[in-house]
Amino acid sequence: MAASCEKLDQLVKDYLLFRGFTSTLKALDQELKTDKDKGLRVDRMMEQIWSLLAVYDLQGLRDYWRYLNQRLFARLEQQRYAPSIRKLESSLLKLYIVNAHQCGRQDKVLSFFEQMGPELQTNTDFKDWFAFPFVAAPADNPMFSLYFNKQWQDTLQLSLHNFLSVVLQAMHILF
Q: Which of 37, 70, 162, 167 has its CA 20 to 30 A from that of 18?
């Protein structure tokens, strides 16, 4: 599907160039640079998510996840995919906290709980996480140590990549 989008983009560009619509072509190029769908390419979507995590952009991460939810995930069979979507979102939020803590950004950890606290209070996955900012060494605490493990982080990245691949493949079938 990603290859189809790229080919279609190129056809539109060729048409605009052929017709002499250079300002429209420039506008299209600019729009493609900020394309949230990332050309429906999983690797670009993953880059977007990981770059938001790297710069501690919680609002950007939430907005992008919400966008994916509305644009892609909402079209899926909810009974089948909803638990995976919730688990991946929860894991990304936990990774955000761990990443901020590992990089010494306690301000981002505290800000996370200030922003997300009301929303996560009812989420059983986060029940224990409200203690995170008050634990002296979370990486050594059995409740959180798993999330500091590189293997867990790599597994999350691979799981998200595979999930997005499956979603895009299912989208291709739906269209």
A: 37
